[in-house]
User: Fold this.
Amino acid sequence: MVASVVAPLPLLHCANSGEAPNVDAVDAAPDAAPPGDDEAGGFGNDTPLPPNDKECAETTKQIFVLATDKALYRFHPDKLLFVRVGQVACPTDAGTFSMAIDRRGTAWVEYTDGRLFAVDTSNASCKPTPFRPGQSGFETFGMGYALNDDATGETLYVAGVGLASLDTKTFDLTFRGSLTYGRTELTSRDKQLFAFSVGSGVIAGLNKTTGATEVTYRTSAVADRAAFAFAQWGGDFYVFTGDAHSIVTLYSPTENTSTVVVPNTGMLIVGAGSSTCAPTVKQPR
Amino acid sequence: MTLTMQASCARSGGSEVDADPLLAPPESKNPVALAVCVSTDCPAPWATCGDAGLCKTNTSRDIEHCGACGNACPSMPKSFHATPVCSKSTCTIACDELSADCNHDAADGCEVFTGDDPKNCGGCGNVCKDGELCWKGACGCPSGFTQCGNDCKNLQSDGLNCGSCGKHCVAPPSNDPEWICGPSVQPDNTGWGCAGGTCKIACEPLFGDCDANLCSNGCETDLTNDPLHCGSCTRACGANQQCVNGTCLCPSGTTRCGNRCVDLGSDASNCGACGNGCDGAEGGDANGIPTCTKGRCGYLCYAGFADCDHRIDNGCEVEIGTDPLHCGSCTTKCDGERGQPCVEGKCLTKPCGPGPGVF
Assistant:
């Protein structure tokens, strides 16, 4: 395994070289209203979400990240550029926990109180969902979509006390099986589902039916007590870890290399997601 | 009950009800084909278990009635590293992190710890190479890490294993060249940290050397409250923002209420104005949550629940999937006299068979 890791200075909070985050700090729509026009704040069929009826618009093909200040960014891996979309103001006092992006550009965001919200990635507006927290013992969980094996669309998977799928129409959680690694976030490459475990730095390819590990990759992104997030883009995996400010590590499964591509993002990233529309083969930089 | 289509019903447990036009094609001329009767036979996986109510138990996922009434999935002591789960009408177990059920016998739980077992590393039968460490469920140390005893350490940045296993970063002898500001000169707000595998003078947490003049004034910047260097030397807060605990408050589109930045349009604790919390039960059996939309309070029921009494102080008190008095909606009532259950939000019916009716 070849690694080119820029190790962070644990005590040094200087930023005179190599630390400047590449952030385009523009709110896309800071005053945007929540999607739908439902005065009662409901989530019925009369207020359809996601708001975009077209799948795989260009804006759904990047990585989205969520920071502890609840700002949503679009991350362009080819340019290593963060573009601020806006402030996610979901109606809860809790912090953000994890995020998954669907093919229509809706970010499904779980908060630390176990509640699930739907966020429009075009303007960061937020709407509560009728998801009942704590189903089957899944209090908090990582999330990610993967394409279905029978080419009938995609499924949202969640990783908590095990692997489960979550139906975003009925909001029912269905248990699939045990997971080897704890504290995991999910992403996918086409139909293959992957889990990243921050405690070990392992990326595990999962059997979507049983949760069993089918393939194991080893990254250098090991951080015991850190915030973390994880997404696939261009066939590579982008891992966001940090305890004050996140670094971005690119793991290439074809080359088995870990490379810190952003030594300091200037923010602490707690959620990341790429939709199943994101490219899955190497992209030119 | 109005017998609109047929005068008699056949099977026991069935009574005729108003025909649902959706159940028969509109072009049908045969009234017999349109007749439906009350059914009390629970369709699988629903069952009537104990006193829970007619067809109220979903045996495909109920841990106390898994596959059949009374078939409880056995509980597990903590030492078994497993949680019982009822999935698809079968009792199974969810193993804890880095535990596995290698003998495929749920009775003894997840008996193998795969976190450090070189014969079952990260999974049953995953054998590490001879002499290779099993670390956190994977063989060997990750790239950039070195084996120190039975652990993997990053010698480039670990202050307790800096450059080599066990080397702690502490102040060196006064003649050490790492005293970059002079022998034993420790600049303000600095300590010793590990960078690039070498112990160096480094800023204490939450301080920064933002003017790059370490030997003159040390790490002079308190990153917790400096709006020009908020959280890091390169992060300046915007106009009208304050730096609080290393975070710029408040981002555009939000309002500061106490120490929080909120959207008054959607924050249920500060709806329309700071401190204006929305009413309604939360947590426990509330089965719903107060909401705030465009600065106006509301209440949202969780999927499968409804607020039929319009009292948000008791939340969404009705489970409309199984309640025969509110079946599928607050206003739909099943035939209580004939014991018609509500299953998945629909009053249970079945086609009426031939022969004499039972009612």
Q: What stands out?
A: DSSP finds no helices and 22 strands in chain A. Confidence is low (pLDDT under 50) at residues 1-21, 25-51 of chain A. Chain A has one domain: 2-7+19-31+48-274.
